Prior knowledge:
By secondary structure, the chain is an alpha/beta fold. The protein has helices at 12-19, 45-52, 68-82, 98-109, 128-135, 160-165, 184-197, 220-226, 241-245, 259-272, 278-288, 292-313, 339-350, 382-398, and strands at residues 32-33, 92-95, 118-123, 139-146, 152-153, 166-172, 200-204, 235-240, 253-257, 326-330, 352-353, 355-356, 373-377.
Amino acid sequence: xxxxLHRLQPYPFERLRQLTRDIMPNPALRPISLGLGEPxxxxxxxxxxxxxxxxxxxxxxxxxxxxxxxxxxxxxxLQRRYGVAVDAATQVLPVNGSREALxxxxxxxxxxxxPGATVVCPNPFYQIYExxxxxxxxxxxxxxxxxxxxxxxxxxxxxxxTWARTQLVYVCSPGNPTGAVxxxxxxxxxFELSDRHGFVIASDECYSEIxxxxxxxxxxxxxxxxxxxxxxxxxxxxxxxxxxSNVPGMRSGFVAGDAEVMKQFLLYRTYHGSAxxxxxxxxxxxAWNDEDHVVANRExxxxxxxxxxxxxxxxxxxxxxxASFYLWAGVPAAFNGDDIAFARGLLAQYNVAVLxxxxxxxxxxxxxxxxxxxxxxxxxxxxxxxxxxxxIASYVKSL
Length: 399
């Protein structure tokens, strides 16, 4: 067996199951989960119709590069959303969800024969980043989130020697779990470091279409264009329909950016066997070409957060994020920063499941930046999320 598999850590949800296996939740209350970030709004009818009307595509082997129409749809969306122009033939690849691409990109980018091969990622983070790095033979360096900057990662924590060994940097903007959006100045800093040390930047932007302010979140390609980097050198952005269009089970997204990186990534994926089903491609074309359902979806989240956030703010340290569908809440002082104890007590007494922040992070630079916080995924309907918030408020008041 591959010895690198032993370096992987259990997924946060598996760790939480182990930490709560002795708990019998309050049977008087129906269970409500704010733990899993799985979109639960209805899938738009236009996507379902496109999916079912293209079943004849099942009789054909798909090309790894995808249907030209799908690549054009993705390029058209990038132009409309970010004002950036990409060559659909050489700078866009469809992928089976951003998770698959985040993992496989590292396998095609990392050269493990170079001493000290390193991947830098934010902390807390989406655990695929760490797993992808370790299974590519690299080490992981973490940039802790900074509470003073709405929990955006502090890239200055990475020293010069580490940057010199870095081959790949994962950026998550809007961030999971914090919802922080990286501003242009920080993109400039990363681009300058990339020019100096030659590493690739992978910008995970799967939450980009769920935001609460008038100005949509800045994207990586958009930042590059603003800074005169129209070739998108050493930059790849990854996005998905899962959150934008409420189709997590469809497993559809795309990757776009540096043509040379994309060429090598396509070569890897051709052997990896990751071509997208023609049926899913047809539905994806319909999704990327329609914006009305995205606007409606965003309004559902805005309504939900507008009702839920004040209830929680009355009892916890929590604020509306820049974007995404998470609240990153501080546990009450009575717990002395023990987010796991808070989650266990809430589950036992009020039958509400939340994800402890310490399970989403690693100890680095002298601390675990997720400790003392919990991630609340507001993915259910408004009434259910509001009931969960009211139970959490009752729990905190009972302490």
